[in-house]
Amino acid sequence: GVKDGRWTVLQLVEALGFSLENTDARTRGRGIQLLSQVLLQCYFLLQEKEVLHLVLFYESRLQDHHLVIPSVLQGLRALSMCEVLSPGLAVSVLKAIFQEVHVQSLLQLDRHTVYSIITNFMSTREEELKGLGADFTFGFIQVMDGEKDPRNLLVAFQIVRDLITKNYALGPFVEELFEVTSCYFPVDFTPPPNDPHGIQREDLILSLRAVLASTPQFAEFLLPLLIEKLDSELQSAKLDSLQTLTACCAIYGQKELQEFLPSLWSSLRREVFQTASEKIETECLAALHALSACLSRSVLSSDAEDLLDSFLGSILQDCRHHLCEPDMKLVWPSAKLLQAAAGASLRTYHCISRSVLPLLLEQYTKHPQSSQRRTILEMLLGFLKLQEKWGHVEEDESTLLSLQAPVCSVVFSALTDSSVQLQLVGIKALTVLGSLQGFLSSSDLELVVDHLIRLTLHEEDSQSSEAAMAAAGSLAPIYPKVFSGHMVPRLAEELQSEREEESSQDRCSLKQRCLQALAAVSTHTSIVRETVPVLLQHLQKVQKGSEARNIQDMVSVCQSLHHVALQCQQDAEGCWYFHQTVVPCLLAMAVQAAMQESTHLLLGKTLLEEEVLTAMIPVISAATTHLSPELAAQSVSHVVSLFLDGEVSFLPQNNFPCSFQPFGDGECLDAQRRLVALLMAFVCSLPRNVAIPQQEWLLRELLALSCSCNCPFTATTAAKCFAGLVNKHPAGQQLDEILQLAVNRMEPSLVDGPRRMQALTLLLWVTKALVLRYHPLSSCLTDKLLGLLGDTELGPAVADGFSLLMAESPDVLHKGCHADVRIMFRQRFFTDNVPKLVQGFHGAGPDVKANYLKGLSHVLNHLPKPVLVTELPTLLPLLLEALSCSDRVVQLSTLSCLQPLLLEAPQIMSLHVDTLVTKFLSLTSSPTMAVRIAALRCAHALTCLPTPVLLPYKARVIRALAKPLDDKKRLVRKEAVAARGEWFLLGSPGR
Amino acid sequence: MVGPGPAAPLENANPLIYRRSGERPVTAREEDDELPDAIDDREIFDLIRSIDDPEHPLTLEELNVVEQVRVKVNDAESTVSVEFTPTIPHCSMATLIGLSIKVKLLRSLPDRFKLDVHITPGTHASEHAVNKQLADKERVAAALENSHLLEVVNQCLSARS
């Protein structure tokens, strides 16, 4: 009644009068409880006067019987939320609570109420509360002293943090406030199982850390505590201390740290030198970094000593000499410590590099062994990378510049060393030096390029050669002139040379490297303009030749062109240049080859081989996906009219003996039809907003070709091209018509006749195109596929087709070529079709059952693991059945499906442990190596199940796994060793 | 045969470190379902090189306690011989290291192999005594009954996370 205004609070109080004044504490308690409940529901309706009286009433009740107190606190909580609370009342309520209530003897919920009252007042009456001065802080310290419940602690920590950050007066109670919070450090709390409150250890840690690291006033108490915990044995305490120290450094200054620097350093050093834990090492280095940054940042009073110098001095003193022993354990910990400090600020960098860089250079010359030199150079590289962080530095300040000559000579010597490992570090160092502006002189640069060319072309080890190419790629955009002027001509020359003295094997691999290097170095538009013509020219030359290796050579050129295309994509100018130059050229060469075939049967035919055309697809596709819509529109009109009208005028050499009509009738046109692959590469990669001229005509031609062509390559490509276009076609009548046309053509061919496979291929690709975009027709087509699983002739191909539906296809229908792909399509396909697959499996005859299992395992294999885990319980029986299926594809994909489930859903899986153990062990003797390996991996993954479930099987598994230890294949033995070793550790001490 | 407690200082705080050899590259032959691959020295070395030293967070390979040249296998005759070299001649861990190697091989090799694990001649003060313990089947079995010892051995054999 009070809520909707029919009653006033006064009337309520009067009505409750009897129970509120009753002498029996229980009755009084119930009365107050009712009043408090009402207030909690309608505190926002109260008048200022009413609030005043209620507050006075409740304050007086605080002295009442302990049974009444919880309800009184609830009432006060309601009142603390009133906006109309008169000034002064908040303070009086708090004083009363501090005075009358012994908070820590209350229950958890009631303590929480007290914290809520304080929090409410702090957020609305900050000024009044500050008027209380340090008394408020002291009152609160007493309230929270001894708190144990994690829920309350989170609130209490937040209050302390507000006290500090909002500048409440702490007065003489800084140490008390520190004590009352720091007693929880380091947090040791494990949430009970099935905890409904969801408070994690991490929540408490972060919340407490925020308190401890909130003020420099705590420093004198906190730092000794941190050092003490850092010296303890407990890993978690060490970690927490280190992270808290790092947090403190953000607000501390030299003054707070001064007294503790020596012990902090010795603890950090000891940990980094001794620890086995990477985590601890990382945190130690982060803390050292933070300390050095803090000291570098501190503003000094004029008479104070700069502690940074002495701090860095002690680091250098303790670590420097270890750098001279590149074989010993402490060399890396020392280098890391020095680098952590050096990375803190420009000042620390100068101070440390001034001492360390000359030392490392000297040590490099002193140690002649490659492995030692590698360690030294790796350390040097670490320091060079730090220099990169500061960018361009004043010349007179940089230590590095003064060492330019010796640094270069060390790096160059590494590049000519016989050890590949040392070369690799040298190449990395070279990349870093090159990226430091103005560090390398122009004569050095020429030397750098010479080294890179030598390593790229003539270094035997492929790792070095690849690294050199990558380095050339990252340096080329910084020095485009040097690379286009020196490296490109040398590579081009090498590519064209026909030296007789070498064996053909060597020459091939040399050409191969030239091609790769030309692509790698094409990272700047001006260089691309040099390399692309070289590559195209080479392609033409190979086409004219008649060597047996032509196919491989052409594929290599295409791979290089693809690499270049990818590097051009982000740059509009380079992208258009590439498209304009490469696409017409490739088309012209292909068209020419297709025409020539009718006259000279052998010459120039290799270009039309499936492998070569397949290699051209990514080139054209990558050259097209990033075009701007205007430029793409310009290009699309040329290409489409080439294929539909035989319009060849835009091709560079368009002097052809006969006309180009790939969609025409006639036996001799087989070669021309193959070029649909290039049409597909182009037209399916266009951005969706680019209109394709005469699209309906094109679609009809593609449809006809895919159904009627006898060549599987051409038919499949036409089907893919059709699907790629249908996927992007705007919805509407036109799309419906073309789809209807497709269904009408497919259906009769699927039933029987010589072109069942073609029809199935078309069905699969069209289904994929529609499934991806959630088109309503997709479910009808999918049902058709499900039906065909029971077909004895087509069934196995349909089952494999499910993998095509689910997998990312490399050339069409993926996000990169702007296809319409809904992100959840796999999940949706799963939910819609898996029940049907399961049903089909149960109803199928024995000869086709495997088809359903195979289809199912393809769907499951492509499903995101988290989805799979939630769907598992219903599918598990079927998967277990699939393990007994004799088809090894089904076995393999089922095993690869189960393995992650064992790791991620051990609880569910342990229900089936008996079956799993038996099936896995029996598959370890499969005749197929891949199945044996997968079965052993599963047997290994079984060890993730709860140990008590596994122990009854331990002896049996260990005995059974002895057999694959003697497998004839090494890769199987390796898995058996890993699995068996893990089973030995089960339930054994020290696991 | 008992290791020191966790608090004992390291006997050798700054030992020499050797580089780990990379993963054995998989050859085309190994991927061929039909052709058998014989068990060779490298395969045995791969079994033991990643065993952790009981003292340092380093592997036996990094400390050069085991080397591929000191591993000999004869697949046809089913024999394996491994020599290991303690980092210092008075290393109190020698027996423990030998035991770890032996246990790892017992768990990872087919039954048919006869194992011989011993200290590289002339590299340890009590070479003879240690070798004798390692060769004695009953003593090895008894040692593994001791749960403290088994714990240390298992720790050395656990794959590093």
Automatic annotation (TrEMBL), chain A:
SUPFAM superfamilies: ARM repeat. It is found in: Cytoplasm, Cytoskeleton, Spindle; Nucleus. One of its GO terms (cellular component) is cytosolic [4Fe-4S] assembly targeting complex. InterPro entries: ARM-like (IPR011989), ARM-type_fold (IPR016024), MMS19 (IPR039920), MMS19_C (IPR024687), MMS19_N (IPR029240). Its main location: cytoplasm. GO terms for biological process: DNA repair; iron-sulfur cluster assembly; protein maturation. Residues 13-274 form the MMS19 N-terminal domain. Residues 514-942 form the MMS19 C-terminal domain. Keywords: Cytoplasm, Cytoskeleton, DNA damage, DNA repair, Nucleus, Repeat. It comes from the Eukaryota. It holds the Pfam family MMS19_C. Coiled coil: none annotated. Component of the CIA complex. Belongs to the MET18/MMS19 family. Key component of the cytosolic iron-sulfur protein assembly (CIA) complex, a multiprotein complex that mediates the incorporation of iron-sulfur cluster into apoproteins specifically involved in DNA metabolism and genomic integrity. In the CIA complex, MMS19 acts as an adapter between early-acting CIA components and a subset of cellular target iron-sulfur proteins. This is MMS19 nucleotide excision repair protein. It comes from Campylorhamphus procurvoides.
Automatic annotation (TrEMBL), chain B:
GO terms for cellular component: cytosolic [4Fe-4S] assembly targeting complex. Residues 20-29 have a biased composition (Basic and acidic residues). Residues 42-113 form the MIP18 family-like domain. It comes from the Eukaryota. One of its GO terms (biological process) is protein maturation. Keywords: Chromosome partition. InterPro entries: FSCA_dom_sf, MIP18, MIP18-like. Residues 1-33 are annotated as: Disordered. Belongs to the MIP18 family. Component of the CIA complex. Component of the MMXD complex, which includes CIAO1, ERCC2, CIAO2B, MMS19 and SLC25A5. Interacts with CIAO1, ERCC2 and MMS19; the interactions are direct. Interacts with KIF4A; the interaction facilitates the transfer of Fe-S clusters to KIF4A to ensure proper localization of KIF4A to the mitotic machinery. Interacts with CCDC117; the interaction is direct. Component of the cytosolic iron-sulfur protein assembly (CIA) complex, a multiprotein complex that mediates the incorporation of iron-sulfur cluster into extramitochondrial Fe/S proteins. As a CIA complex component and in collaboration with CIAO1 and MMS19, binds to and facilitates the assembly of most cytosolic-nuclear Fe/S proteins. As part of the mitotic spindle-associated MMXD complex it plays a role in chromosome segregation, probably by facilitating iron-sulfur cluster assembly into ERCC2/XPD. This is Cytosolic iron-sulfur assembly component 2B. The gene is Fam96b.
